[in-house]
Amino acid sequence: MGSSPRFSTPLHPEWNGLVERFNQTLKKMLHHVILEEPRSWHTKIPFVLWAYREVPNSTTGVAPLQLLYGRKPEALSILKNTWMAGQEGLQLGTTPVTL
Q1: Most buried residue, 1, 15, 35, 36, by CB count within 10 Å?
Q2: Is the pTM of this model over 0.70?
Q3: Could you state, in order of their start, the residue ranges of all structural domains in the chain?
Q4: Known SUPFAM superfamilies for this protein (predicted)?
Q5: E strands, 1-99, where?
Q6: Apex CA 79: angle with CA 74 and CA 85, to 5°?
């Protein structure tokens, strides 16, 4: 793949900006996921990583999974179709919605 390891100095995060940016994104995603159950954050990490890998990156325009495996992720479209199938009775506005 043409990659090689890069080492950075311990306790100097400014030398490793890409990793620090990913850590910031991961922390923000975890924060939103664990609002209801803060003590179970460790059980949510696989789902947050899955979501991160499936969604297209703003810099590259493609999902990390697609860059790694060379195929488009299908899980989100499957979930969207499943979710939308159950939303036929959804009404927008101020009236109560029954599902």
Answers
A1: 15
A2: no
A3: 18-78
A4: Ribonuclease H-like (SSF53098)
A5: none
A6: 130
